[in-house]
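Let's practice the habit of predicting before peeking. Look at the sequence and jot down your guess about where helices and strands might fall. Then scroll down.
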Amino acid sequence: MSAATLEKPVTVQDKKAPARRKKTKAHYYLILIVLALFAVGPLVAVVFNAFKNNAEIGSNPLAPPTSFSLENFTEAWTRGDFATTMRNSLIICLGSVAGTCVIAGLAAFALSQLKVPGGGAVVAYLFLGSALPVQLFLVPLFFLWTQLHLTDNLFGLILIYWATDAPFATLLLRSFLLKIPKDFTEAARLDGASSFQIAWKVVLPLAWPGFLTVALIVALWSWNEFFWAITFIHTPELRPVSTSFLAFQDQYSTDWGLTSAAAIFMLGPVLLLFLVLQRKFVSGLTSGGVK
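Done guessing? Here is the structure:
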């Protein structure tokens, strides 16, 4: 029997298969384009409106500006007092990131590497704490903070961020630490290392991608957070950047040109930070197993 007779004949279905695959990929590309427009479209509109006056925004808020003027940016920077609010937000972000990483790192080490009695119940409690809406704690927390003189205080606001961010950060870091082989900790214990030395010198350095991911998430949350900030900070000199938008609203109207320029001031630092560290951020989330 010749080799030619062993070859499988090409059917009509085989010829149509590449066309079907191209058609299927075309659907995927169309969906991705729609999602990209949905995500980028509002940002483009904000950039356009930042260069327009109110009359031009009212006539067509989605059209590109006819002329580029920086007047909205200069006025928004002055009226919103961004020099002060950005400084306050930077202090809040650094304090929140440092405290949350320490609290969540030690808690995650205990839950993943030590035999903690009732560890499963603690993990369930952290899941429950992450799911509950923070508005439930507003009234008792405000009363307690007033008694402790922690209102109108940046440290008092940072304490609230520690409490609200630590449960999720602990669960995220715990997923990293569970992947570390037990051989490292057992070898350190045989060498006479204490639990604190094992955590500080062995386990936690291996989980630096998780700490970087937690730091980015906490920094973004504390930078953009508005509810706790407007509730517990009343002095204008202590307010964070998220409250600067209140300067462009009155009782009956909103200056959308100034609001758009202020949005760029607020989004600029976090967007630049995310673009610089996006690879480490995404790899940290995926390696931690959090979907």
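How did you do? The two ends are 56 Å apart (CA to CA).
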